[in-house]
Amino acid sequence: MNFRNFVEDYINSKPFLALSSHPWIILFDIDGTLLSVNSSYNRTHLRRILDELGIDYPDMENDSFSGRTDHDIFTSFLVNHDYDEELYQQYKSLYLDYLENLLLKKKEMVTRLPHIDEALEYFFEGDFICGLLTGNYPQAAQIKLQAADINRDFSFGAFGELEKDRNKLPHIAMDQFHKLYDTKPDPSRFIILGDTPRDVECANKAGMKCVAVTTGKYSRDELAEHEPDLVIDSLSNPDQWFGKVVAGV
Q1: What does the alpha-carbon distance between residue 230 and residue 225 come to, in Å, rounded to a whole number?
Q2: Which helix (H) or strand (E) holds 210?
Q3: Which helix (H) or strand (E) holds 190?
Q4: Going by C-beta distance under 8 Å and a sequence separation of 6 or more, which residues neighbour residue 218?
Q5: CA-CA distance, 54 to 43, in Å (whole number)?
Q6: For residue 162, what pLDDT is reported?
Q7: How large is the greatest C-alpha to C-alpha distance in the chain, in angstroms?
Q8: Rounded Cα–Cα distance for residues 244 and 249 (Å)
């Protein structure tokens, strides 16, 4: 598959549609929200790539990746190599090859999180626009969703390829919404679904709403400290928790 200019092609493939009113936009995170990838297996391969390229970065096994963009994570590996761009591109290429050649063949490495079908059906079948807001590269996002058998046609995506800083991804999402629907985006009509404090932070900084779910590594209390609009334990009963967000509860 050719993923060159993925984001532009993704947008251009969608039919232009002017909206008479601003719908609710639901932006799904991937890792820890819709699915999980076996972390020990994943880190083993990240270490193999580091060693294959001769990258001096001994601390990878202790790093926290939660909520960070792929761009940020892999760039940080190059702290002892003057953040060499060519080395970064080599690492990125090998990582994407690993995902495609491994996860699509060993789908047991990817776990679908509980109740995602219930939530996806509710929002895709309702009067909503659904997109992705994820730290993954576009190709990595597609591979993981395919490995988890999540076959939904998300309208657009803000990915961790264009920006190292996750806080900039909501603005990319709003720009893409504007291009697709010729409607000025109202951030208060966007809801980010995510499992980390970084999801909450990027939503808050953009003026978007956030529903934080405890299906990742963070507890209710840890997520609540960052003041999401709502903390839930799973994506079940989406009509109920969406109603609470809309009501400002």
Answers
A1: 11
A2: strand 209-213
A3: strand 190-194
A4: 66, 195, 196, 197, 212
A5: 16
A6: 75
A7: 55
A8: 5
- How many C-beta neighbours within 10 Å does residue 19 have? 12
pLDDT in tens, 26-78: 999 999 999 999 988 889 999 999 999 999 999 999 999 999 999 999 999 99
Check if the beta carbon of residue 202 is closer than 8 Å to that of residue 166.
Answer: yes
Do 150 and 107 meet the contact criterion of CB atoms below 8 Å apart?
no
- CA-nearest of 214, 180, 189 to 199 is 214
The dihedrals phi and psi of 42, each to the nearest 5 degrees, come to -65, -45
| CA-closest candidate to residue 136, choices 70, 77, 89, 188 | 70
Q: What is the pairing mode between strands 128-133 and 24-28?
A: parallel
23's torsion region: left (phi>0), alpha (psi -120 to 50) or beta? beta
Does residue 166 contact residue 135 with C-beta atoms inside 8 Å? yes
- Provide the residue type at 167 as one letter: N
Residue with tokens 């993954």: 136
Whether the full predicted model's pTM is greater than 0.90, yes or no, is yes
Dump the DSSP string for 126-181: TTEEEEEE-SS-HHHHHHHHHHTT-----S-EE-TTT-S-GGGHHHHHHHHHHHHH
Strand locations in the chain (E): 24-28, 35-37, 110-112, 128-133, 157-158, 190-194, 209-213, 230-232
